[in-house]
Amino acid sequence: MSSSYDYLFKICVLGEGAVGKTAIVTRFSHGFFRTDYKTTIGSQFAVKNIDVFMDDGSKVTVKLQIWDVAGQSRFQILRPMYYRGASGGILVYDVSRRRTFIALDEWLVELKKAINKEIPLVLVANKTDLPDRVVDTWEGREYAQKHGMPYVESSAKTGEGVVDIFEELARILVRQRQGGQQA
Ligand code: G3D
Ligand code: MG
Question: How far apart are CA 53 and CA 74, in angstroms?
Answer without folding.
Answer: 40
